[in-house]
Each structure stands twice: as structure tokens, then as C-alpha cells.
Amino acid sequence: MVMSGDRNAGRNHSIKFDNSSLARVEEFKYFGTTVTNQNSIQEEIRSRLKSGNACYHLVQNLLSSGLLSKSLEIKIHRTLILPVVLYGCETWSLTLRREWRLKVFEKRVLRRIFRPKKDELTREWRKLHNEELNDMYSSSNIIRVIKSRRMRWAGHVTRMGERRGLYRVLVGET
Q1: What pLDDT, in 10s, does the model give residues 66-79?
Q2: Total-model pTM
Q3: Which of 24, 66, 93, 134 is at 20 to 30 A from 112, Cα to Cα?
């Protein structure tokens, strides 16, 4: 795969290894992360959200059974669902739209955990408002978690030293 802003870069090049040619691809999975030739993280975030949704649906019956306390349901959310969504998030570059998609996913799962609330005046069931969810869920939101993990990762890379390639990339040296 040739990574370039130019879509035609590397089209005429092929790699041969032991009399066999390697196929040119637009994207591939590497340690569970999708790498694209355009270096776009959009597909990776979409894939992570899809996996997070699948993970939620696997534990949905347990979470909606009413047998678990809210604190235990939140722990399940933090230990089973969020790690699936946030795998590799240290290298993501987030736009406002991508942040919004991640927040929507988190709010949707939290609304399912905290369930609808019965309005005292109208006696009708209604979804919880974002402010109510923020009050009930005391942990950091998903964007703060991502930013915290990125800072922790940058600290690790900084401590690697000048000889390591990753350090040179971080500080902009060649």
C-alpha cells in the first residue's frame, strides 16, 4: 500500500517477493486497526462504533434485566463496551463531526442503561436529557477519555528518546 494524498501514487509500482507479486490494496487491518492509503481515520471510527454496538447488544439482555444495580451496569459499560470502541484511539485525529458521532454513541448506551424516566406531571415516559445523563454518569465523557489517553501516549513516546523513530516523528525530525 502506498500512502499519499495523491490517489494515483504507486499505481504503476508492484512489489515482487519470491516470484510472486503482492497485491496493491486501498486498506488493510493491522493489529485490529484499519489502515487506509489516504490515512483517514473515519473508517476506523465507524468500524469501532459498529463493534461497540455489537458488544452492547451482546450484553443488552443482562443490562436490561433489572437484576443489576446501576453502578454495576456502568462498570460493565466502562470495562466491556468502551475498550472495544476506544481501541487505538491514541492515534485518532478528531474533527467536531467525529467527536459528535462518538458522543452520540455514548449517550445512546447511557440512555439504555439509565432507562426512560416517568414525568411526574404528565405521567408519561420520556428519554433522559443530556444534562440529566451528565448528572447521573459521573465519569468523564468519551472525548475526555480519548484526549487523556492521547496525552498519556505522547508522554510514553517522549520518554522513548531521540533514537526511536516514533519519537522523531512526534517532534518532527527526520
Answers
A1: 889 988 999 999 99
A2: 0.76
A3: 93
